[in-house]
Amino acid sequence: MYDIKALYEAESVEHAVRLLIEHPEAQIIAGGSDVLVQMREGKRAGKELVSIYGLDEMRGVSYEADGAVRIGSLTSFSHITRDPIIQEHINVLGEAVDLVGGPQIRNIGTIGGNTCNGVTSADSASTLHAWDAVVEITGPNGVRRIPIHDFYIRAGVVDLRPGEVQTAIIIPKVAYEGYHGHYIKYAMRNAMDIATTGCSVNVKLSPDKKVMEDVRIAYGVAGPVPMRAPRAEAAAKGRAVSKENVKTFARTVLEDVNPRDSWRASKEFRQHIAVVLAERALRESIRLAGGEVDE
Amino acid sequence: MYVGKKVTRVDAYDKVIGRTRYTDDLCDKSAYIARVLHSTIAHGRVVSMDTSEAEKIPGVVKVFTCFDVKEKHYFPTAGHPWSTDPGHQDVADRLVLTEEVRFYGDDIGAVVAEDEVAAAQALAAIKVEYEEYPFVLDVQEAMKEGAPQIHKDYPGNILKHTTIRKGNYEEAIKEPGLTKVEGWYDTPTVQHCHIENFICYAEMEGDRITVTASTQIPHIVRRIVGQALGIEWGRVRIVKPYIGGGFGNKQDALYEPLCAWLCMQLGGHLVKLDIPREDTFVSNRVRHAIRSHIISWVRPDGTYAARKLEAFSDQGAYASHGHSIVAKGAGAFPQLYPCDNVEVDAYTVFTNKSVAGAMRGYGIPQAMWAVESHTEDVAARMGMDPVEFRRKNLMPVGYVDAFSRNELYDDTFNQCLDKAMEAIDYKRKFNEYQNQTGDIRRGIGVSVFWYNTAVWPISLETSSCRMVLNQDGSLQVQLGETEIGQGADTAYTQMTADVLGVPLRDVHVVSCQDTDVTPFGTGAYASRQTYTAGFAIRQTAMLLKERILEYARELTRMPPYNLDISEGNIVRTTDGRVLMTLGELSTEALYSLTNSRHLSAESTSQIKSNAYSFGCTIAEVEVDIPMCKVKLLDIVNAHDAGKLINPALAEAQVHGGMSMGIGYGMSERLLFDEKTGRALNNNLLDYKLSTFMDHPRLKAVFVENAEPTSAFGTKALGEPPACSVAPAIRNAVYQATGVGVNEAPVNPHNLFRRFKEEGLI
Known about the structure:
The complex is a heterodimer of chains A (about 300) and B (about 750).
Chain A: E1 4-9, H1 13-22, E2 27-29, H2 35-40, E3 47-51, E4 61-63, E5 69-72, H3 77-82, H4 84-89, H5 91-97, H6 103-108, H7 111-116, H8 123-130, E6 134-139, E7 142-147, H9 148-151, E8 152-154, E9 157-158, E10 165-171, H10 173-176, E11 180-186, E12 197-205, E13 212-220, E14 227-228, H11 230-236, H12 243-252, H13 267-288
Parallel strand pairs in A: 1-3, 2-3
Antiparallel strand pairs in A: 4-5, 5-10, 6-7, 6-10, 8-9, 11-12, 12-13, 13-14
Helix pairs in contact in A: 5-8, 11-12, 12-13
Chain B: H1 12-17, H2 23-26, E1 32-38, E2 44-50, H3 52-56, E3 60-65, E4 100-101, E5 107-113, H4 116-125, E6 127-132, H5 139-142, E7 158-166, H6 169-172, E8 179-186, E9 199-205, E10 208-213, H7 218-229, E11 236-240, H8 256-265, E12 271-274, H9 277-283, E13 289-298, E14 304-316, H10 324-336, E15 342-350, H11 364-381, H12 386-393, H13 412-424, H14 426-432, E16 440-449, E17 462-469, E18 475-479, H15 488-500, E19 507-509, E20 513-514, H16 529-556, E21 563-566, E22 569-572, E23 578-581, H17 582-591, E24 600-606, E25 615-624, E26 629-639, H18 647-666, E27 698-702, H19 725-737, H20 748-757
Parallel strand pairs in B: 1-12, 10-11, 14-15, 18-19, 26-27
Antiparallel strand pairs in B: 1-5, 2-4, 2-6, 3-5, 7-15, 8-13, 9-10, 9-12, 11-20, 13-14, 16-25, 17-18, 17-24, 21-22, 22-23, 25-26
Helix pairs in contact in B: 7-8, 10-11, 11-19, 15-16, 18-19
C-alpha cells in the first residue's frame, strides 16, 4: 500500500501541463520504477501524482527532418535496446540501457524518467552526455530545447520549471554521424545494481583510421551529476591512434573527475577505476570504429 | 520403491501456479496492521516518548511504547530445544519492547493502525528522547578494558569463552625444524535474505492466543511466546503454513512474542505484523562475523606439530543463539585436520550491532573461511600441492570424535575430492594456471568442509510422527519437522510410501504444523530434518503396518506373518497372491458393523546419534587485476550425504547452498556506520546479494556412502553446501594472482586494497 494523495492521469501532453499547473506540488510519474520506490521510502510519501504513462505520443524512436534521432521520453529501456535506428547509429545507448536493473525494470522504466530523476548513476545519462544529447521540454510556454549538460542542475535536480514535462531526447546528426562508442558499467554485481562508476566513450576516426579526429567521454558517479571529461578529450583529440595516446587520455581523466569518498566506494578506488574504464572504453570504441591500437 | 528416486516435489504444482498460501495470504483483511518503532541510537536509554501527534493520525488504533510493558517477562529467543537444566538454558535477555537500547534498530515501540499507510505515518510522527551512552562495534574493542558495557552481567562484554586443550602446544612448538604459519581471517556480517520477510499475525479465542507465523520452529515458538507473555504454554497455539525460506533467521522467535502481546493489549483483536525488508536486515538476525587467528607449526614433511586457533565471534546486542555458533567451528578445528597438540580459544562478545543468530552452516562457513584459507597458505609456504597437502592431513577413515561419538566410516574426503576434481577437470586447469602474468589471470581453488547432521549430544533430538488411515487406504502423515522450502514433505512422502508399501499418491503429508494438533517436534534447524524425521517415520509406519496386518488377519483368515503390504495391496507372502487392496481393508475397517476400527499410529523416536557429513568445493575464476574483479567461471560441490532420498531435491539443495556461498565469498556484507552504529546498506540494492547473472552453471556431485546410524542411510545436506564455497573462491584467486584475501568477501574493495598492498596495481 502506497501513501499517494491523489493520482491524475494525463490524456495528452497539453493536459499533463495543465494538470501540473493545477497541482503545483504534484510529482510526474511515468513507469514508476523510481517514484514508487521513493514513495515507499517516505521521500515522496503523501504526494499527488500526475501520470503521463498513457501518452503514446511520447513513445518511440524516429528521425527528425534534419536527420537527428528523436527518442520519446516514455520509450522504455528495452524498446531503445531493440530499436533499429538506435542499433544503427547509437548502438552504445541501447547497450547502456540494457544494463539497467533487471528485465522487469527495463520493460517499465523510461529514458525520460532515468534522466529526470537527476541521479549521477543513471545508465543512460553518461552516454547521452557523451553524444551531446539535447533535451526537449514542453511547458505552458511551448517547447524549449537545451543541451543535456544544462538539464542537470545538481544531484537530484533537473531544469524542469513549473508545468513542464520532458517530452523527448534528441541526438543531433552531427553528434552521431561517424562516431562509434562503448559504455562500461562498473558495478558490484552483474544485474540489479547501480553503477559504482559508469563510463561512456566514443570516437570519430580519420578515414585512414589512424587519427582520433574526435573523442568524447562522459562519466556517471564521477561527480554529483553525470559529467564530461574535457581535459581528457582535449588530450586525445587530433592525436594518432596509439597505445601511448590512449594511456595519456586515460590518465588525464583524473584532472576532470571528482568522485566522492563514501561507504559505497572510496574516492581512491573510484579514481583508479575511472582510469581503467577510460582506457578500455576508448580501446573498444577505436576497435568498433575500425581502428587498431598498436601493442 | 520411491526412496532414491527423483520424484516430483509434492508441493511443486501449487507453488508454480501460485496457489500455495503463505502467512500473508491467510490473514483476514480485518487485521490491524502493526509496525515496530526502532531506536535511532546504538546504545542508551529511552527517556521519554511523545506519541501525541501519532495518535491524531486517522486510522491509528493505538501507539505503544516501551513504558507500556509493565510486566517484564524476559525471554530467550534462540530456537533451541528447551533445557530442563537451568544451567543449559538460553540467555533470557529480551523484552517485547525495551527502554534500554543496545543497538541501532532496537525495538522501543509499536504502532497499530487500520492500514499500512496510517501505520507508516504514525511511526514517523513519534518523537523519542534518549539518554545516549558510548557504543562499541568491534569485537576486540568490546573486550578491552573501559569499553562500553552492553549487559551488566558480562564483564568485557564476553557472553562466553570456551577452550579446547589437547596435548601440549607450548612444548610441541619447540620441536626443531618447524615452520610457523600465522594468519588473521575475517568474515563479514551477512543476512539470510529469504524471499518472504518475517511475518505473523495473532488473534485470541477465549483465553487462548493463536499466532500464525513464518517460522521454522512452531513448537519452540509456542514455549517462547508463553515465556514472553508470562502465560501458560498451553494457552499459546502456533500455526506454521508454507514459508518463503528461513535459512536460520526463522529459527529464532523474532516478532511472534511482540505480535501476541499487541493482540492481547487490544482485547484479542487480530493484529498482523509484516516486517519490511529494511528491518529484516537490521532487527531480525544476522550471521555472526567471526575474526579468527590461526597459528600452525608444520614439519618439513607437511604434517602438523601444533596448532592454535583464537576466534572472536560478534554476537551483536543480544544473546540469541550465542556461543553455540563459534563453539561449533571451534569444535571442528581439531577434528578436520587432527593434530596432537592443539589450543583453541573461542569468544562470543556483545557489540552494539544487529543481533546474530542461526544461519545456514551455524559457524562452519566462518570456520572454513579461516581454516581453509589458512590451509592454502600453509601448503603454499611448504611448497606443497594444495590438494595433496589436504589429503595428507585430513581426518582419516575410522576417526571417532570422543565427545559426539561421530565416526568417519568411509573415505569420504578423498572420494569427494576425486569426484569434484574430475567434474571440473582440476588437474589440467591447475597446471595450466601456474605462474601466469598479465592483467587477466585464471586460477582454480579447493576447499573442504567439516559438518555434522544434527545436534546430539549437545541438545535433545526427538521426532514424533502420526499416521492416520483414510477410508480409501490413503493416509495423512504429520510431523513436527517442518517444510521450509527444502523439500522435506516430499522426502517424508517417499519414506512413508516405502516403509508402508503404498503408492506415493496415497501418502498425504500435512505440511502445516499446528501446535494444537501436530505431534511435538522441534522444527527445522541444523541439517537434521530428513535424518531425524526418518527414524520416527520408519518406526510409526512399521507400527501402522502391524495394526493393518493384524486387522487383515480377520478379513483374510491369514496370520500376519504371512502377510505384507505392497503397492497398496494386502499380499500373501507365501505365494505372492493379492488378497485385497488396502483401500478395501480400510473401508471395511471404518464401516464394519461388527468391528469398526480407526487405524492409526503415533510414536516418538529419540535419537542418540549424529553423523558426519563432509565434502568439498572447487572453484575456477578469472581475475581482472586492473578492474579488481573476479569472474566465477566454474564451480563444483561434492558431498557425501549418505544415501540420497531424492537426487533431484538433493541437487537443488546443493545449488541453493552454493549460491549462498558465492554471495558470502564474493559480494555480501552488512555495513555499519562507525559514527552512529546505523546499518548503511540494509536493502537489496546496496547489500550485494549475488544474482543469477553472477553465477556460472552450478555443478553438484555426490558420493553415496550409506550412513550406518541412519534410518534411511541418509545424513546432512541442508547446510553443508554453503560451507566451503567462499574459501574455494578465495583460494582460486590466490592461485591466479598470488594474493590471499583474508577478509571476506573477495569483492572489488578488498581486492583493490590487497592488490595495492602487493603492488599489482
